[in-house]
Each structure stands twice: as C-alpha cells, then as structure tokens.
Amino acid sequence: MRITIKSDKPIWKKNLYVLSIAVFIAGIAFSEIMPFLPLYIDTLGHFTHQQLNFWSGFIFSGVYFVSAIISPWWGKLADKKGRKLMILRASLGMALVLGSMGLVTNVWQLFFLRMLQGVFAGFVSNSNALIATETPKEKSGQALGTMASSFTAGNLLGPFLGGALASAFSYRVTFFITGGLLLISFLLSLFFVHEEGFKPITEKKLDKASGVIATLRSPTLIFGLLLTTLIIQAANNSINPIVSLYVKQLMSGHGNVVFVSGIIAALPGIATFLAASRFGALGDKIGTHKIIIGGFIGATILFFLTAFVHNTVQLGILRFLVGFTDACLFPQVQTLLTKNSPAAVTGRIFSWNQSAMYIGNIAGPLLGSFIAGISSYSMVFIVTAGIVVLNLILFNFNVVKNLSK
The Major facilitator superfamily (MFS) profile domain covers which part of the protein (predicted)? Predict the structure, then answer.
C-alpha cells in the first residue's frame, strides 16, 4: 500500500524525509521507558536490594539477547525480501509489544515481553539499509548522517519525555503512549515509504559467513572493530540498570527521582547529538582511529570520576561529558567499517556489527547489576573505566596496526 505525494523530489529524498521522522519517533519510544524501568520493576513485587538489581539487569538484557541471535537472519531476509517489509514488521510488532508492557502484573510477564521485543527488533537498522541502498553514493554520507541525527535526537528527548509522562500519569500509561508512537512510525512507513528498484541478492556464496569473510581485505581489522563495538556497548550499558537507583541514593529518597533520572539519562544524548558530526569531520582530516582513541581516554577518566560524585549535579555534568566521548566511539567505528568493507557485503557486515552491539547490550547490564549487587553503585563506574581501558588496548592491537598495513 502506498500514498503518492506529488513532488519534484526524487524518491530517495522523500524516503529520507519520512524515515528520518519515523526514526526520530522510534528513538523517543525506545528510550523514554529507560529512566523508570527499574522503578517499574520494583512495583511488580517485593524485592530485596540484590533481587531488584538482578531483575533490572535481566530485563534490560532480555531484548538484546534475542536480537543478537536473530539480527543476522533478519538482515539476510531483508536482502531477499526487501527492507520496507522488515521496517513494517519491526514497527508494528514493537508497537504491540511495548504497549502490552503496561498491562503486566508480574516481573516474568515483563521479561517475556522484553524478549518478544527482541524478535521484532530492526526498525532503525533496516531504515538505514533502505536509505543506504537507494541514495546516490555521493549523497549517502549526508543521508545516513541525517538518519543518525534524527535517531539521536529522539533518544535524547525520550528519557526526558518518559520521566515527565511517568510523573504526570503513571508507568503503565507511559507504555501505552510508547506503543502509540511506534504505531505512528508504522503508518508513516506503510503509506509514505516507497522501495524502488529492489534487487534481491541471489549469490549462493554470500549466503554463508565464509563467503563474506573471503571478500574482506583485512578480516582481523573488521572483526577487531566488531569486538570494539561489543565492548563499547557493554561499558555504556553497564550503567543503565543502576542510573535511576544511583540517583535515588544520591537524593536520599527525597525529591522527584523519576524526573531527575530522566534528565540525567538524556544528557549524554544531547552532547552526542551536538558533537558527532563535528568529530566525524575531524576524523576525516586527522584519521578516524585517532578520534576513537581520544574517546577511549576521555571515557576512562569520566567513568572513574563518576564513582566519587556527591550529588546529582555532579553526576549530571559528568554524564553530559560522557556524551562527547560517545560521539567519538560508536559512530566512528561505523565509519571505519564503511571505509574498510566492500560495498557488496556492507549490509552483512553491518548486521554482524548490530549483533555485536546487542551482545554488548546483554553483557553490560548484567555486569553492572552484578557488581552493584555485591558491592556498590560507585564500583560499577570504576569497573566500567577498566573495561574502557581494555577496549583501548584491544583496539590498538586489532585495528590500528592493521590500518597501517
């Protein structure tokens, strides 16, 4: 089904306009439940401190566990059946699942729905794939940059909006609103996105990972970048399950914890949105890998300092600064993957990168919750700083050395 809008703009520009809006809305929907999810879990039973930390990490990770396994399969299916079909599958499926989270009565039901959310993942990645394949190569960087900015803008607005909605209404009503936002993304994609000239991939050799690897100039470099993505996500997401609980501790249980948590969760996204394109341009001049190394060094210092804050103002400042290091890391890793992957297999490489990202999203919350359970919230930040140092060492060994060859 399609609605045709009379316009002199080429199809790829129309798709870019519509999908950048849809991805912005999806970014809000995906991130607005994060500030209060651990607090919502706390309302679903009577949990000890350790049990609450365990369930927070477990439920954060559920969606990523399924997504990590199924993402390459969806990527292969998109190459054969079309990206628009995958966009519609993901947006409608997640609209229903996230809306249903407002109806759960126990923690196991919430965990099941988070797992089911992972089955329907892929809206943003397939939107990017559709834009990348239909946009002229000389315009692809600009187009994908627009998509990244739209999603980042939604992500940074989401936590603030989610905290405000949960404070004004309730946790459950906020889930219903989130499902409605994703339904809007589905309708925009259904009626206004037109996939033109799709050619399914039929080469048998590219059905297998070995065939993709054989086309790579430096497999060590590519897999080194995938490992870098995994550890970046693990480090960043080790913080997610405990941010609102850390805020609650710093505020000694007084004040609007949900609202403050939403603001603090949004601050890194604001900095990333402001800096990502600038760091990307700088990387083109001095070397993208140098930007990544700078990001590692900055993140190590900031995570370590966060362990010793005494109030939410100090926490907010450091989390805002972490957003600048985020702008140096994941977007720049994607840039290096693009520059070092043959065009014919870029889609498959990016699906592997997405799986690596999800694996990191699994490991991070579990690690953060475990450390918080046996030690303290401050120790989570200290251990995370150590993980970033390890990533810097591995990046130099696996990537930087191979870039110079």
Answer: 15-403
Helix (H, G, I), strand (E, B) or coil at 48: coil
Q: What is the CA radius of gyration of the chain?
A: 21
CATH of 9-195, one of 1.10.10.10, 1.20.1250.20, 3.90.180.10, 3.40.50.2300: 1.20.1250.20
Task: Give whole-number Cα distances, 121 to 124, 305, 377, in Å.
Answer: 8, 34, 30
Residue with tokens 């603001």: 263
For 77, the token pair is 């299916």
Tell me: the pLDDT tens digits for 129-146?
Answer: 787 777 775 565 567 667
Domain 209-404: homologous superfamily in CATH: MFS general substrate transporter like domains (1.20.1250.20)
| Residue 180 to residue 62: CA distance in whole angstroms | 22
Q: Encoding tokens for residue 141?
A: 């960087």
pTM to 2 decimals? 0.74
Q: What are 226-244's pLDDT values in tens digits?
A: 999 999 989 888 887 778 7
Nearest residue to 386 via CA among 179, 193, 231, 159: 231
